[in-house]
Amino acid sequence: MIGFINELRRRTPLGWLQLSRHRSRLLVALSGIAFADVLMFMQLGFQNALYDSNTRLNRAILADIVLMSPQARNSQSLSTFSRRRLYQASDIQGVKSADAMYINTVSWKNPQTRKKTIVQVIAFNTEQPALDIPEVNAQLNKIQLPDTFLFDKGARGDYQQVFDKIEAGGEVTTEIDKRTISISGLFQLGASFGADGTIISSDENFLRLFPKRQAGSVNLGLIYTEPGADSSQVATALKAYLPDDVKVLTREEFIKFEEDYWKSGSPIGFIFGLGVTMGFIVGVIIVYQVLSTDVNAHIKEYATFKAMGYHNSYLLGVIFEEAIILAVLGFIPGFVVPLGLYNLARNATNLPIYMTLARAVMVLSLTAIMCVISGAIATGKLQSADPADMF
Amino acid sequence: MSSVISVQNLNHYFGKGQVRKQALFDINLDINTGEIIIMTGPSGSGKTTLLTLVGGLRSAQEGSLQVLGRELCGANEKQLTEARRHNGYIFQAHNLHGSLTVVQNVRMGLEVQPKIPPAEMIDRAKKMLEAVGLGNRINYYPDDLSGGQKQRVAIARALVGQPKIVLADEPTAALDKKSGRDVVELMQKLAKEQGCTILLVTHDNRILDIADRIIYMEDGHLISDDSVNALAIAGDGARG
Ligand SMILES: Nc1ncnc2c1ncn2[C@@H]1O[C@H](COP(=O)(O)OP(=O)(O)OP(=O)(O)O)[C@@H](O)[C@H]1O
Ligand SMILES: [Mg+2]
User: Fold this and answer.
1) Pocket-forming residues, ligand 1, beta carbon under 6 Å
2) Torsion sign across C-alpha atoms A233, A236, A241, A247
3) ipTM, 2 decimals?
């Protein structure tokens, strides 16, 4: 190691000197790499926001075990199963209670703009909190009133007047399917890709809103276990006991179920993955272009170095030195610009887009790999640096 | 005197199969320590080919080629590369690295030798540049120097590692008469100081007088030196 450091101190930093001698070429290279990095950051940011926002409801559910229809694909298309399964579930030892949750998407009139948009309706038995959202749990008494709902402050769209009015203690009314409802409270959840916002109420209000739905067919079963009971053991017992027309998931499995759908069941994971790949390839091409131009420009000097007794590996080292310098320098703007863009996107879409350390590390590694691949391709040009034929 | 370069029955061919063409025919040559040899001959006669073989820039194919006691015929790429470190090679073009300053360029001639500490490398590079009369230009880039100055930097780079052998292929071709002469005299002076052997290819009749011995190539054959020397002297006489 010490030998290596001494060797570095002995060595002329040829890669850096070559790059820094041609400022404009360096700037072009760095902006190319930064561009590729921004592309990757944005794709990964949106992808993560998608997973986060779409699993937000799943993560907010307080139940230890969740029942759902085997036909369910994700929390926006859950299908239904018979409420009888909930009663049966109560037979199992370790189950404290089993409640129904109703979820549906519906188009409503934005109370402020009167335009129609899609919102998600979530409803449950208000005798006990079902969600890990403090504002909801504090306002359970409100949604016990008929046709009264709570509304998501994180919803996407123009709702500022609505929020202001409700926060001042007022109520706002609007229409869903020609039925007038009132919004009397707010909570914070956030928009997802599937729905612009969420409204929450009691199971009774849900059934008033969807008269065609029967109380007996529910979307989710929320099972709470006795204190001290092992929920995975209870889940195993439930699986054995309940018929096949219902699926039993622990809380963790329920979150993973949703994530898996968006990652592999929907084309979205693929699309964002493609976006990242594109960014990567653009980066490889740009860096290759820069490095091979540089090798071509110095081919005579390289041949001279070989004639002086430098090994080919020395010249490879110079190219990889350049690749790493480009990766690190290009990453700096490539990291800073997305911080601003994330902010813009967050404000515009209300999606949870944030920079994370893990993502920064990942993009930095991708950038390094990108530059090293380009460097490796560019080294092919070194073959023509033959001192015997050049002079 | 011991010989530093010893060539016996050396043949060299370019190309393969149908297009195979012999460039060197049965070359025999011995060069002793400290000698300055000038090689002349018409274009295409094989001078550069012989020089690159001696310098280890291409691998010898047939016969025997001993440089500093090492057989280069049949040597592999790695051995050739190591062998190059004992030579200072000066090309027709200066081939300085445009992104490096003058002193950084010269330092590259030392970096290739393992185990010289960085401070010593800089020190020796500066001393060498003073010796070629460029002590006040060490932080210039090659682009800011004249042709003669650049070639002097190239000489400094070739000689800074104190090579046993200096190989030069038409080092004055790109220079005007005066700077060409200066450059060759500088090589001669430094080489004598360091006790190294010079093999120099040139078309330039005006510098033949620095040679201890002149050898003449024609169509890939080495013509015996004595007769050439006689010719050169006769030529001198005719001119003078
Ligand atoms: N790489 C090569 N491939 C094929 N033939 C070559 C190659 N290099 C040289 N030759 C041939 O070998 C012969 C000798 O070439 P060489 O370059 O050694 O001549 P030279 O004496 O240095 O000429 P000049 O004075 O013009 O530099 C020439 O006929 C040339 O065409
Ligand atoms: Mg030649």
Assistant:
1) A 389; B 14-15, 23, 41, 43-49
2) positive
3) 0.89
